[in-house]
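User: For documentation purposes, I need each entry recorded in a consistent format: the amino acid sequence on its own, followed directly by the corresponding structure tokens. There are two entries in this batch. Please keep commentary to a minimum and don't merge the entries.

Assistant: Recorded as requested. Entry 1:
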Amino acid sequence: MRSFMSAALFAVAALPGGAASADTIEVVSGQQRSFQLAAFGPTGQSFVAIDSNLTSFGFQFNALNPGSANLPFTFTLREGAGFGGAVVSTFDFTLPTSIDSRTPTWFDFDVTGTDVTIGNTYTAILSSGSARNGVVMGPDINIFTGQELSGDAYLPGRAFFTTPVYPNCAITGHCDLNFRVTGVTSVGAVPEPASWALMIAGSGLAGGALRRRRAPAFA
């Protein structure tokens, strides 16, 4: 009897109790322009959460003045669109000195433990006194006319500026920082057909073992 019962328990234990589902928003909006936060002040990017547990947040940076001091950045996540919402979380980070040219480079930092509500809007805000690094954004524009050369890369959100980088950003709302955010949420897994078959077979074996045990009572 023990062998039959062990098989049944193994069949149930082999079923996945949960699965990890990763969601990522990644926006690259032209990647032709960058600006210093030291000159323009804190800048934010609004987005709509597609996962309830954030794990990383990243932006594209480049080095506008590689010889300047590599000062830290502060990341603040606020509720709503803009600078005025309640603070959800805040982190400090320093970019690696390997970012030493004008080539746009992704840098992601850990925000594990940051909980948000799916479908709600949040704004990721960057601030720094660094003149070394620039934050990459789009759309690309004609520097002489201000005409946008590409469309709005992320319709659910937009970039917010303390001092406008381009006048058109405030007019059209088409400007976005190049950013990406990743979240991981544990969700209940639906067993695959093979798992269902294994579970049913195991239950059958368990039932057979119980029937065998009871047989002498009817003798």
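Entry 2:
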Amino acid sequence: MLRNIVAVKRVLYDALGHFNNDDGWAMSSHLAITALMALFPFLIFATTLASFLGAQAFADTAVHIVFDTWPEQIAKPIAREVLNVLTVQRTDLLTYGVVLAAYFASNGIEALRTSLNRAYRVSETRGFFYRRAQSLVFVLIATAGILAISVLLVFAPILARLAEAHIEWIKPYMGTITVWRYAVASAVIVGGLFAVHFWLPAGKRRFVSLVPGILFTLIGWLIGSTVFASYIDHFSSYVTTYAGLASIMIAVVFLYIVSAVFILGGELNAAISRYLEARARVTG
């Protein structure tokens, strides 16, 4: 028991110490701003591509997947404006504007890569063009994934009615389309976290070694967003302080909290790996 307590203390001290000493707070700010700047170009690029392919319901699905896991007080005003922007008809898929949107969207992936490289304490050895191509592939995969989900959600009510008609015991588990949206959004987040931790940083990691940091990220996201949402409801003066910029400032602070938790997840994985390697050397 005492040995486990000592191990936990060493891992936490290593993770938190490296996060603080390696400019983790500044990296959280960088990641938050870059994520906000990449979010809108990604949604514009993805919606334009989806419209070009005939998936007209994409915009609504994309907004739900991105914002359903945000606290309502933070997501609602931004999601409404984003949806207004995305529903504007565009026919310029192959123009410079949309190509630049894809490029700026990939900057968000690059910010994730930089944050995780520092968290895992590895030096980047891959070339610029390889990294940028990989980031663009991530953007395209995310677009394709949301496109597939939007198609599935269109047919979900039909499939649900068919299932309920032929399988009696399944009725209590079907829920509503809102429940399915939350479930899909959560699955996308978990899958995305595993993907970015596994492929973006330099070096190689075992899949199972990613689990502690990802669990920490999910729990920290839930706690952080709940506390921040409660703060906005009861104590915040953002509206009076920032007036029309309040929703953007709230989003930036929220993304800062999420970014810090995300980086700490990588720090935790790295600290656990370092501890296990050190113990293996001692016992070996």
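Summary note for entry 2:
The two ends are 22 Å apart (CA to CA).
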